[in-house]
Amino acid sequence: MKGFAMLTIGQTGWIEKDTPVCGPQDAICKPIALAPCTSDIHTVWAGAIGDRHNMILGHEAVGEVVEVGNLVKDFKVGDKVLVSAITPDWNSLEAQGGYSMHSGGMLSGWKFSNFKDGVFAQYFHVNDADGNLALLPEGMDLGAACMISDMVPTGFHGVELADIQFGDNVAVIGIGPVGLMAVAAAAIRGAAKIYAVGSRQNCINLALEYGATDIINYREGDIVDQIMDKTHGKGVDKIVIAGGNNDTFDQAIKILKPGGKIGNVNYLGEGDYVKIPRIQWGCGMGHKQIIGGLMPGGRLRSEKLANLVLANRIHPEKLITHTFKGLESVEEALMLMKDKPRDLIKPLVLID
Whose CA, among 147, 187, 263, 336, lies 20 to 30 Å from 168? Predict the structure, then answer.
């Protein structure tokens, strides 16, 4: 089969590989829709998870089942399925302990384009199919369905990690696709003020549509000064970090109230340390919590998020700004994510 791969750090290309083998609890799928992710860019060009050789990229997909193992109960050949970007081993001790995304070790629930070939291929393998696939609801927009693989659950997990409650004043730092879904999730959770930090106009427009009350444009001044001014020096109750870099924690701590929480879902692809300001952290005693987490995967989460789409509570299809057709277009779509033109939020590749 053909796939688009990371050849080594900084290099990508098309390669031929054997079609993956289906285990007794697994499934083999062919892609119906694919989406490149900023994580793919960090993986290839920043070497964020270390060198990988001839590893097929991609972890965001909608698929069609072409083979199932003899122990799979709930899926059959021909089923169209939502595929979670994170595919835990659900019988692991980590999953039993409530951290399925780390099954087998830290971040090991993230298998596609990390420990095994990803979805940018003619066929891809899904472990523990009954636990990691979900049926594609009839008539669901493929863009929305593809966003359920990663962008929606990651943004929502940031809100979970920050423990946003009704009436909280919230900052969402970074309003790319993940941050935009965090804005939508914060609104659903009942946040009062939602300060969305970003500068691209199409992202700003969508953030406001999703529920942001205020836009903080970092190109117009320091975000700490802007948010502290808007909150009359009080800061915010909760923060979701969905963009920025290792220094973003410095700004976040400064705008967070004592007793507040930061939920980080930003993939830190470079550097060795993050910066936390000692004084504003209360000399280590300010009850300002930082919780960073890889989003949970799995069937139940995909089904619940699909329910929100079907109920018109969220509209992740609006993240799609560029649409391509054919597997061969994956390369162009990925390079679009690398170059990040101002009109981009998220590209989608529909497979013929």
Answer: 147
